[in-house]
Amino acid sequence: MSHMSQEGYDELVAKLHKLETVDRPAASQAIAEARDKGDLSENYEYHSAKEAQAKLEARINKLKAELLEAKIVDKSRLKGDVVQILSKVEMTNLKTNARMTYTIVSESEANLREGKISIKTPIAQGLLDKKVGDVATIQIPQGTIELRIESITL
Known about the structure:
The chain is α/β, with parallel strands linked by helices and 154 residues long. The protein is built from 3 helices and 7 strands, in the order E-H-H-E-E-E-E-H-E-E. Helix content is 40%, strand content 25%.
């Protein structure tokens, strides 16, 4: 089961809709056009189009499975005093004094450019259930970091 926000769920539904209604017909059209070019045994365009279609179908199936397993988190039932999924956490790296802010989201919603990290990352795991003022000591691939939680919002 994958917990996610309503917005994240809606994005997945929209992505699936586009794949099924726009990309799938385009892939079928590309196969038809390549097929019309003659001998299929040596037709690179045909084989490439078939491979692209197979990848597209795999993405569609993966999205469908994600949506089936999705559980939308009701933000109104979350507590704002501890770090949990959908928490926006402002913290300070105690070694570098650098401040950073991340929102903890499901894997499918993670986007580092937007400051959204997956709940399955070491940083998110180390922050879970912590409160403002707590220091989380987290093992990451580069070593160990200590992060002090400055604020938690939803």
